[in-house]
Amino acid sequence: MKIAILGATSHIAKNLVYYFRRDSHYELFLFARNQGAVYEFLKATEGELSPSVAGFDCFPGGDYDAVINCVGIADPQKQKNAGVELFRLTERFDDLVLDYLAVHEKTVYINVSSGAVYGTAFDSGVEGNAVASIAVNGITPADYYRIAKLNAEAKHRAMADRNIIDLRVFSFFSRFIDLESGFLLTEMMRCVIERRPFYTNAVDIVRDYVAPSDLFSLVKLCVASNGINQPVDVFSAGPVRKSELIALFSRDFGLETRIDEEAHVSTTGAKLAYYSANHVARSLLNYIPALTSRDAVRDEANVIIAGMATMHQSEGLSSGHRSRSLGGC
């Protein structure tokens, strides 16, 4: 099957590329603004498949069984300063795919959305009948990201005759994450690597980190789907508390933790329990995650710690190994 991935340099896209390259059933077409970064990633990770790499302008001319849209601004630090670009970026690449679907009716469109569409109040896991609200006369920058994502999902539902699945990712952590991004786990990892204390408040939040392998399994089920047009919440085999993560990092990596009530205030609102209890993916796609959030984080953190030296050595490698360019499309 021919799979196109838009935004191939994004965190989630890197994980999908990593796993797809190890499955001979697929042919990959990767699209990104920085194609050199894609080549560097392909050489650093290796794999059996040799993906095609090109700019976004080459995308419309291809023939794909499925398109996975990973374009977006997920980093909370970048979201804070993105402004209107949060909307423009989402709309530009979503419309690029929707225009493609207008001609290629059988192509499956998998859009990476976010649990943020549920709003800003997360006191417990969201259910399938959840209702999101917004102060229509008081929209703030903290609302931009979720409105952009929800707007895209609404357009997809309006195209009911197309196979479009919006994967709502709540939390994701892997060996390929940018440790400079402003997430809870990246700060914990940096504290471990730099051997300095981790400052956090006393609030014991809950998060759901889907394992990269489980996310890949879900994406493959979506690729093989037929006639589905709806959102699907992404979930692991079980969420995890911050206190459990701290205990894990303390025991396995020697993390020292100190309480600071001003630490780790989310730029997109307080999320005490940011996870979904809407498990429609089980019945709709037969998706059964294998790993809990705790186990997923532990496994990926171990790879980061063990591979720090190798990862540094791989920076700046020349491009082009085991991949091919589409050239002039």
From TrEMBL:
Residues covered by the NAD-dependent epimerase/dehydratase domain: 3-223
InterPro entries attached to this UniProt entry: Epimerase_deHydtase, NAD(P)-bd_dom_sf
Domain of life: Bacteria
A Pfam family per the record: Epimerase
Protein name stated in the entry: NAD-dependent epimerase/dehydratase family protein
Naturally occurring in which organism (per UniProt): Candidatus Cryosericum odellii
